[in-house]
Write a structure and sequence with these properties.
InterPro entries: Secretoglobin, Secretoglobin_sf. Keywords: Secreted, Signal. This is Secretoglobin family 1D member. The chain is mainly α. It has one domain. The longest helix has 17 residues.
């Protein structure tokens, strides 16, 4: 299964779940950072969540795969995520 599909499904689950009608701006920052920020910058931003080191390393491992996406594919995914956020009520 391609990695972009699970990322999209997680985004849909987080944004469109009935109990969470509001999408916070830090989620958007996290999603865009996941695609576009350098690893060191993104890892530093993850530290603010006080996540276990294993969870941070797991997310960074996935980010290594995402870093291999082409620029065009990253743009398409970012555009799609933007459409999902608009559909879920974030303006």
């Amino acid at each position: 299964m391609r990695l972009s599909l699970p990322v999209l499904l997680v985004t849909l689950a987080l944004c469109c779940y009935e109990g969470n009608a509001f999408v916070c701006s830090s989620l958007i920052d996290d999603l865009t950072g996941f695609f576009w920020k350098p690893d060191e910058v993104y890892k530093a931003k993850l530290q603010k969540y006080n996540a276990p080191p294993e969870a941070v390393e797991a997310k960074m491992e996935v980010k290594k795969c995402v870093n291999q996406f082409s620029f065009v594919n990253k743009l398409l995914l970012t555009k799609t995520l933007g459409k999902v956020l608009v559909k879920c009520g974030f303006t």
